[in-house]
Design brief:
alpha+beta
Length: 163
């Protein structure tokens, strides 16, 4: 097995462990993740118009996503607690598919990346939209959550190619 094929969260005996990032250089790191939530036209129109009974769906989802990015170490056992320097959530509308696109950008100057923070931000933003809209549409679908790109760190830049 090559070094690049070795799973980093396991020691030589196969035990789960937290990666020691103490010897890594601090660099600027950015991760961008994306996802989407599809819904019935009625729910979509209400989200888009801001008329959902529970209030500003996307405003609440944006705050939830940012908060989630800051709390990843309490959710995912082997993630490091990080002092992130940036967390942004952007929503887009797909009128043809009644879907809301979610993009999270998370940044840090640190010794480890923020991919999990960006992915978690998208996931929690989507779940918040679901929670706030479920009275109108319980059949919403969360999909296509993935890392779109990342920069910085020893492994360098990554950009997701079309799949």
């Amino acid at each position: 097995m090559s070094v690049s094929d070795k799973l980093t969260h396991f020691d030589d005996a196969g035990n789960a462990c937290m990666v020691d990032v103490g010897r890594k250089d601090e660099t600027k790191r950015i991760a961008v993740a994306q996802g989407r939530i599809s819904m019935k036209s009625t729910a979509y129109a209400m989200v888009r118009a801001g008329t959902m009974k529970k209030g500003d769906v996307l405003g609440v989802a944006r705050i939830a996503g940012i908060m989630a990015a800051k709390k990843v170490d309490t959710l995912i056992p082997l993630c490091h607690p990080l002092a992130i320097t940036q967390a942004d959530i952007v929503f887009t509308f797909d009128d043809d598919k009644y879907a809301v696109g979610i993009e999270a950008t998370v940044g840090i100057v640190g010794r480890t990346g923020v991919e999990m923070e960006a992915l978690t931000a998208v996931s929690v933003a989507a779940l918040t939209i679901y929670d706030m809209c479920k009275a109108v549409d319980k059949g919403m679908e969360i999909s296509d959550i993935c890392l779109r790109k990342k920069s910085g760190g020893k492994s360098g830049d990554y950009s997701r190619q079309g799949r």
